[in-house]
Amino acid sequence: MNFKDLVKWNKRVSAVYAVGIWTMVGSYAYVTYTGRFDTPVKKREEVEEPEDPNKVVYQTAHSKTIIVYRKDFVPYSTRIFSFIRSFSGEPKSGDSDK
User: Fold this and answer.
1) Is 2 exposed, middle or buried (CB count within 10 Å of its CB: 0-12, 13-18, 19+)?
2) What residues form DSSP beta bridges with 55?
3) Rg of the chain over CA atoms, in angstroms?
4) pLDDT one-digit tens code per residue, 64-95
5) How many CA atoms, within 13 angstroms, populate the side-chain half-sphere of residue 51?
6) Are residues 57 and 65 in contact, defined by beta-carbon separation less than 8 angstroms?
7) Beta bridge partners of 64
């Protein structure tokens, strides 16, 4: 295949792609303008507030997720950082001048 043939095919494929994209955009604009495509209004359901302030409830149409946070939870990144820092010999926050 020559270089000229590649350029021709590139232009043809680009033209087909452009026609397809503009057809999709134009169809969406036409359907929206004529009112055939009505976006449904989402009804927000009231979620009861849990008694425990450490509970968070996420509810969707298909699932309900309850996340319970522990009171004195230390993130794993902080635990790993403290463990690695313990090898350095620097004084820790609870240490006095010993």
Assistant:
1) exposed
2) 68
3) 30
4) 998 888 888 888 899 899 889 888 877 666 55
5) 0
6) yes
7) 59
